Structure formats: structure tokens, C-alpha cells
Amino acid sequence: MSHLPMPMPVRPIGVLSVLSVLAMLAALTPSLPAQPAARPSAPIADAIYTNARIWTGDAARPSAQAIAIRDGKLIAVGSDADALKHRGPATRVVDLQGRRVVPGFSDSHWHLPTTDQADLTDAKSPAEIVRRLKAWSAKRPAGAWVVGRGWTPSDFPGNTPHRRFLDVAFPGQPVVLTDRDGHQSIANGRALALAKVTADTPDPARGVIEREAQGVPTGLLKEAARQLVMRLVPEPTVADLARRIDEETRKAASFGIVLIQDAGGRAPEHPVFTILRAAAKADTMRVRYRAAFPFTPDASAATVRRYTMLRDSLNGPWLRTGIAKGMLDGTVDAKTAAMLEPYAGSDDTGLPFWPAATLNKGVARYDSAGLQVELHAIGDRAVRTALDAYANAARVNRTSGRRHRIEHIEVPALTDLPRFKQLGVIASTQAIFATPDQTTLQNYAPLLGPERSSRANAFKKFDDAGAIQAFGSDYPVFPMDVLLGIYTAVTRQTPEGTPKGGWYPENRITVEAALRHYTKDAAYAAFMEKETGTLEVGKNADFVVLSADMLTIPPSALLKTKVLLTIVGGREAYRSTSFP
Fold it and tell me: Of the residues 230, 250, 281, which one is the last residue of a structural domain?
């Protein structure tokens, strides 16, 4: 698809030039008394931010008052006096008025939404789902596909989705709805007919077609079976993709995110790569972006070599690769997460995607090429399989320091937690997954049972085991709101404060621990700890200014705390209308 033209009418991604940033800062910066020119030996700063409460993330200097920036790098981190030594005639000085400053956040597990679809989040009933779909489809051409995302099993009677709710409302129009987690879809009768999915259609490899009497599909398609219908949904144009990248990176910057780690696992030919490479070349990206290639255990040696070459060529400050994403199982809500013991009330242990021997061989091939691997593994069986594969690769290749990752790790066996530190495997977890919402309490926890629920998304247990834990959101599964994620990890409550005391409160962590997982640890997971994640001289000027001091306020106040300013490489990526 590399022949596709670039979408010229679409505005560039994240266009905020250094000159425009300086102009805005000049207009907003209060006048300060004249300062002596910097000593000849001190480099002149482009900008200096003073009078702040800075959490640096650096153990050698955990706090500071001011920072100075030159050419996108930090040249001073210390007191106001330290930073002002670098003031020159053209230096812009910004008084932050005592506000809290932290390193820029990284979302360690993020997905680019590429399809325009109805938002079904928190619908809570089939009637509300249909209402939202009607409103969404009314703005589209007659007869077009109706697509939506965000439903959960608890939105349906008996936690059982069925196409009958859609067939009545859309008898002649194809409808396919993806669940919140992206592992199940509901298709109506018209969509199934277009896809030729019938009672005689066999389950695809690594997929399940749910059926009722005589094998008739209920419309619920799990894992790989989703593609039987999803392949018919029209693909977005290159212009649409460019617009979505612009919108989503703009949104990310508004949450203080300076580094996106995209776990989409797209092939190098995908137009998303074309757009990102053009933006990186033009130096118009708003945030830093690390994109994953696909991991498949049966990938050829030539494919792996190609990924390695692209890793070396796409290694700039704004766009990087070098990681490959694979899938080992599904989700708990779909009963496709691979478990060591059956789900409560059944003999079903989930859906492992690959035999261990096949996985081991594939991981070893990527590992030998110097590529980092990230494997989606939610159930304890899948997590153990991933750890075994990484241990095997290190042994047969005699390698170390690859920083392979396991994504989600929702229900690990407690005996496997020490292996993360022993093997140097990154625990890529999602803070907001600990939200005890309706779906968690009515579907997720009952499927696991009390013992497994007590170790689900237990971030403190990872910390206690000495694992490097990198936080993300799995956006658009959950919002990429970092402060909401920190609130959830700290309280294990919903934003409404339920349940009282938190869901398995022994698994709560501190605000500072959560902050570290979103900054220093997340940068380490991306091999970028020498450039970002902490505020130290020589590193990128990637930081966030907050409306409240997240380290001293009550946890509930995190929900009202706002990002006022996001700086990436010295550039202003986001400014709140309420700043200064």
C-alpha cells in the first residue's frame, strides 16, 4: 500500500513550531526584573520555567524548582538561580507560580482508533445501544454499515449478547458492534448473511462462533471469528487516517502524554506508517510515537530481518519501532483468556492461541534478531506460557537485556511474579483495568471466582516482586486519562467512590509509585530511559504542568486535577485555556 498518495488537504500532525511556541510564551510571560547576562561558559537557554514544584523522577535529585531548555533538551534542573544562569537576551522565562511539574507521561499500551463508529460505552441496556446506533446511523448514507464499540456483557440480560436485539431495529442494514475490549463482536442477521456465516460455518482457528439450537449463530463472534464479518466493513481512507492520527495525538497531549507506545501490530506497508514517517521527516509530530510490528510465531527469517532493518532506519526522536506485538489469548469477559483452572461454574479454561513449542520457536527467532517482543497474555496459563517462551529464548540464544514484555497480565499465578525480575521481563499493565465497575463486579469477578479476583490487576504484587511495571490504558478500551488511571490504581474504586474502601484494597499502590510507572518505568519499557521519563540535564524537555499538586492532595482530588501545559522536546504540545 506504499503507493497511496499522502493526504495533502489534511493539516499536518501536531503543527506547533518552536517559533510559535516562543511567541505564545512571550505574550503570556509576566515581565521580570532584568537579569544579568549568562556567563560566557553557560549555554543560553531558549526557555526557562521557574517557581515550580518539580518531581524529577531522578533519585539523585528528586525535586527541583526550575528548569532551563535549549534545543529541546534540559540544560539545567535545580533552583531558580541555577536555571536563570542560562538566561540570555532572547530567553523566554515562564513563572509557573508554584505549580506541580512532573515528567511527561507515557502510555505504554495504546491503540490508534481508525474507524468512525458509535460510542457504546456505559450503555447498560440493549435499548440504549439501539438508541445510540439509530442516532449515529441517521448521519450516514442509507444502507451503510452500522458500526459501534464499547459494549460489555453486563449490558445484556443474563450477560448474554444476542443478535435479536439488533435484528428488530435494523432488519435490512448490516450491523457489527465490537465490545469494549476488542475481542468480541455482535453481528446482526444482515451482516451474518453478507459474510455467509451460517450454521455450517466452522469455527476459525483461534476463534469461536457462538451458537444456539441446530448450530445457528447467535451473532456473537469471539477472537478470530470477528474477522468473518469485520473484513467487510469499509476501510478508512488515507485522509481519514491522517485526520485520526492528528485528533488522537492532540488528545493524548491534552492528558500530558509525551510518548505513545502503539501496540497495534501493523505491517510496515500499512498507511498509518506512511503517514507517521512523513510527519517525522517533516518534524511535525506532536508527541513521540513507538509503533509495533506484528509478531507471528511462524514469521519467516526474511520478515524478521526486514523488521530489524526498519528498526534501525526508524530510530529518530519522534518515531521508532523495534518491537513486535503478538497475542496469546483473549479476555476474561469473553471467557477466552487462557486459564490454568476452569472458569467458575464451567469446565472451560479459555482459548490459548499457540502451542508452546510453536511460540517458543517464534520468540527465539525475534529475540535472536535483537527485536523486543510484547505478548498479550491475560490468563495465568497464557502468562506462564509467555514467561516460558522468554526464558527459552534467553537460554537458546544466550541473550539478555531484550526487555521483552507481557501485556495486560490481568490474572497471573502468584508463583510466576518473581520470574519477571529474574528474566528481565517488563510487566506492561493498565492502571485503569482495576476499575470495579458494573462489568467487573457482575461478569468479570464472577467468572474468575474470589481467589483469582483477589490477584486480578494487583499492581502492588508486581511492585513487591521487584518487577519493572509500565502503565498504559489500552485505549480505546479505556480512556487514556493518566490522572484517572492513577486514581484507579491508588483507590481501586470507581470515580463515584465505590465500593467503599476499594476493590481488594490490599492491591492499592501509592500516587508516587503510579507516577513512576507512567514515566520512568514506561520509558524504560521503550528503551528510551536515557532520553525521557525523568527530568535530568541532557534529557529531552518532556514535562507536564498540573493544576494541583498530585503528590499531596487527597486521591479523590486527582479526578479534578487538570493538565495545564504539555511540553515535548521543548515544544508546546498542549496548553489549557485556563493556563496561566
Answer: 230
